[in-house]
Design a protein that fits this description.
3-stranded antiparallel sheet, two-stranded antiparallel ribbon, flat
Length: 187
């Protein structure tokens, strides 16, 4: 507890080492953790929404679904989406060589960090994208209005660099079927 904060309960000051002060401190820490967790979850869903929206915008009107190769090409284009901006930043920095600190350095480092993280995700765990290989999933994606609330309706899949894909919905269904069969064995 800081010295500036004087804790009071029922108009009386509370001793900083008392049990009541520890309870109040615990409640404040808990509420801070809850707020931080909500912010992280919201940021994660916003990033996923932006990714799905980008893939939705890249679809042609006459395509009912894409092949696996076309999806990998689309992921490669997604990973290269900041190249123009990086080239612009480099060009601006070349013009003003006499500056000690390069212009837009923080933006460039943010872009490079994002690209590295997404490329690492694509090459190791798999890149979560809308399932564009099934016509009904593409139809659902086209009908999606871009809100986070309706994102669970979309079918997503993991695309890996080596060419393998796995549907997240199929994995969840398989796990549920296994747990059901385990319950039958216990009874």
């Amino acid at each position: 507890m800081s010295k500036d904060k004087k804790l009071k309960a029922n108009g009386k000051p509370i001793h900083p080492s008392s049990r009541k002060a520890k309870q109040i401190s615990k409640i404040e820490c808990h509420s801070g953790r809850v707020v931080k967790k909500r912010q992280n979850t919201k940021a994660k869903y916003n990033n996923l929404r932006d990714r799905i929206q980008w893939f939705k915008d890249q679809l042609n009107e006459n395509q009912s679904h894409l092949s696996r190769q076309e999806v990998h090409e689309l992921v490669q284009r997604y990973l290269q989406r900041f190249q123009d901006e990086i080239e612009q930043i480099d060009l601006k920095n070349q013009i003003g060589q006499r500056q000690k600190t390069p212009q837009y350095a923080s933006r460039k480092s943010l872009i490079e960090t994002t690209i590295d993280a997404e490329r690492h995700e694509y090459e190791t765990n798999g890149f979560e994208v809308p399932n564009l290989m099934q016509p009904d999933a593409v139809k659902e994606l086209r009908n999606w209005d871009g809100t986070i609330r309706f994102m669970p309706r979309l079918k997503l899949c993991l695309i890996k660099h080596n060419g393998s894909t796995s549907n997240k919905t199929e994995q969840i269904v398989d796990i549920d079927h296994e747990s059901d069969s385990m319950d039958d064995v216990d009874e």
